[in-house]
Amino acid sequence: MAQINPSILSADFARLAEEAKAVEGADWLHVDVMDNHFVPNLTLGVPIVESLARATDTPLDCHLMIEDPDRWAPQYVEAGAGSVTFHVEAAAAPVRLAREIRAKGARASMALKPATPIEPYEDLLPELDMLLIMTVEPGFGGQAFLDIMLPKIRRTRELISKHGLELWLQVDGGVAESTIERCAEAGADVFVAGSAVYGAADPAAAVASLRARAETATASAAWACGH
After folding, report:
1. 105 among the known binding-site residues?
2. What Å distances lie between residue 18 and 55, 56, 147, 161, 201, CA to CA?
3. pLDDT tens across 61-117, in order?
4. Catalytic residues
5. 63 among annotated binding-site residues
6. 32 belongs to an annotated ligand binding site
């Protein structure tokens, strides 16, 4: 089943609790954490995650676009995140970090920037609960979807199937009604959507529409046949 994770990077930061409630039909709430070092932008940190966790029943999916995630990622689990994503480009010991995140009770996820290939990390996949393929360069919301990432999504799905893993495959960046079906057909099953949800007149209806499009595309996708 397709999962839709609205990104609060596109929400009104002055009304985060209300914005979280506006998408209560979503599967997860995607929280982008940026440190102005790994990416050229600065956003939410641990205190905001703690506040959000108290304000919503929707589980939090924290995407850490930060340096030294080995040090900081466990704090986001403690703050209330149900899933924590670190960038492999920034992690010193990704297997150890994934195991620590899991040991603290959250789902462990690893993200790859557009230029980072999946193949060198094939042996790490069993250590993860989710893999995130960035479909824009991380750091800013509202960027255009990179079609050149579709073959990488397909290759990643093939590796997941090859090893028989129950690994979620997430895409983040430029996901909208015009792109979500291509992502689902290629193999993604978790979709981060920012402006496509929070820029809509009815965010909850936008979530439902995106999910329906993704599930229709998945139903006829080669990778999902017999899945």
Report:
1. no
2. 9, 9, 33, 39, 15
3. 999 999 999 999 999 999 999 999 999 999 999 999 999 999 999 999 999 999 999
4. 32, 172
5. yes
6. yes
